[in-house]
Queue: 3 jobs
Job 1
Amino acid sequence: MVLHVASIVALFVDTVAATPVEIRCAQQPTPESWVKWLLPTIIQTLVSLASIGAGVGIAVWSFRRNRQSEHEQWLRNQNAGHEQWVRDQKKAEWKELLAKAAEIERVLPSVPLPLKDRLSKVANRLKPAVNRLSVARASSVFLQDFFESEANVNRFTSFIKDADAADTYIWAFTEVLRGSAEMFVNKTISQDKAERDLDEGDRKIKLEIERISAAYFNFIEWLRCEAAKDLRTVKFR
């Protein structure tokens, strides 16, 4: 009995010794890497910063664009305001120039008048009216571009000289008629001679007034057309 038990024990021991034993140790969980749990936070932060940067960039771009647009609009307004101011100044100078030219029209008789009335109306007022027109032309600053044209200057000054010469011519015949009247009073010439001198003087003065009147109306029509073109109030084809 004892031998049987010993045999069993010995067999068990041999079996255990012959069987390889694999010992497994329980694997301890390793701590997660800090990158693994910090990476989402880093990505979210970067996305947030990128969004904020994009927003700030758009805001700065919009601000600069608006400032640029406002500056450009301000420049356009300034230019438009300056152009309008120059236009108003030119309009004022054209108005003054035409007004002074119109004074000559009031001097020249539009209907036949007796010799005495013609002399009083023209001889005493034509030259001062022409002088005022000359002064208006000389004081024109914003019409400088118009008077830079040699053709315009020549036409303007030609009329001024013509009107001034007409006044001198009329005054010369006035003196001739006055001399004839004095000689008639002093009885150094006959009444017939005095009357002939009066008729001749009347005829020449009348022709001179008609001539300078025609020259004036051509001049004023030209001046009005030039003013309209310069101010662009009408279109010329």
Job 2
Amino acid sequence: MASGWYIQALVDIGNGLIDLDTDTLAVMLVDENYTYDPDHDVVDNGGNDATDPSFNELQGVTNYVDGFGGGGRKMPVLTGTKDAGNNRAKWDLTNITWTAIGGGGEGNVSAAILIKEITNDAASRLIAFFDLTTTPVNGGDLTADYDANDGDLRLDA
């Protein structure tokens, strides 16, 4: 699976509804059952299947509380820069570590999703999907390290 933007988020960024520098954003973890599609737009679409990020969020494990406002979702800091050599704008996210997650519940983390939590998961906007190396949830630390070389999020001119 490849990493990428969600289309509606790009529209919202262009319309000023999402500000990557000043909005409070969060990163949630999903298992291998979620199927990334750039046409998905909200965290909870009511699908309860591979198209619904909230249904496939890491659940029932130690040190990760799923759902809107849950303690499992962590807030990164985004820094935007101009990369003139590659004709792109890029944003770097701080690496996030979830400490000692594991036990019960889901067996693997396969991706991280950058979101803007609004009033609940049905209204919260999906921004970007990051394909991670599938990692078993076994009580160890998990660090989301996206793409330090080319920018975690980028838009080419």
Job 3
Amino acid sequence: MMDRFEEIVKELGAIVNLPLHLDKQGRVRLNVNQLFSVQLEFEPDKERILIASFLCEMPPGKFRENLFKECLKTNFFVPTIGILGLSQRNNQLVLFDYLPIQKLTGQKLADFLTIFFQKADLWRTAVQTGVLTPITQVKSQNPSLFDLKP
């Protein structure tokens, strides 16, 4: 299955016009518009791909509490792209999700990542500007919205 993951990554690279390859740990990291990075990692025991991004540092105080509430509300929507959480290790807002590798293609991954990137950018911007207006689910199918770099 690791070969299948590598094949999907190469298909994704062809779609976004970048030579994407797995690193020594079998992961791929994409830098999105120099704003944040997204890591793709295959979990062979569960036959799925983990897609994760640290978005920004969580601020202290009342805003942090309100941010948690908004994250919980967003995580409640089904279906959703990406689950919001807090990394206690580095005090960062995290967006992550899993995709089953069965039936996954580079194009399906590109389509998923486009929406994932948009959601990540909306939340990163909301936290950094301190404005938590209700953030709705993003539903764009334009894979060229973000400049990817390995």
